[in-house]
């Protein structure tokens, strides 16, 4: 039986680049019983309660039933969020994050996509041995 469920997104890893931008490894989860095509991501990101910016990407990625995949998305964070994250990294402490936005996805055997609301609250911690990386 075909079951189409709302997809989900979470940050698997966030790496601060030399220029201050962030490389976000965004995990896209397909909870449906059929393969889904993930066409677009438009998600606002907050860290430590500060608006950080948006993840906007067109992955064009097919994810199998009840599976996940990861896409890398470059992000230019707001300066306040950049400083907050740098402070958390320097102190070796975790930082809470929130995602709020949309994913456009469709069954792989159909043409038109649907927009799904995405909301997530979680936390990232500095990764030992990998400077500037949180997981």
TrEMBL record:
It comes from the Bacteria. It comes from Luteimonas terricola. Pfam families: LEA_2. This is Late embryogenesis abundant protein LEA-2 subgroup domain-containing protein. Residues 102-135 are annotated as: Disordered. Residues 26-108 form the Late embryogenesis abundant protein LEA-2 subgroup domain. The lineage of its organism: Bacteria, Pseudomonadati, Pseudomonadota, Gammaproteobacteria, Lysobacterales. Gene3D superfamilies: 2.60.40.1820.
């Amino acid at each position: 039986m075909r079951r189409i469920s709302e997809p989900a997104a979470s940050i698997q890893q966030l790496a601060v680049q030399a220029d201050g931008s962030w490389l976000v490894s965004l995990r896209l989860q397909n909870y449906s019983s059929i393969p889904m095509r993930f066409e677009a991501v438009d998600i606002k990101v907050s860290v430590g309660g500060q608006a950080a910016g948006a993840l906007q990407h067109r992955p064009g990625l097919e994810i199998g039933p009840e599976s996940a995949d990861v896409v890398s998305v470059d992000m230019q964070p707001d300066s306040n969020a950049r400083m907050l994250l740098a402070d958390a990294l320097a102190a070796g402490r975790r930082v809470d994050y929130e995602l709020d936005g949309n994913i456009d996805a469709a069954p792989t055997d159909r043409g038109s996509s649907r927009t799904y609301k995405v909301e997530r609250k979680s936390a990232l911690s500095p990764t030992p041995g990998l400077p500037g990386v949180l997981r």
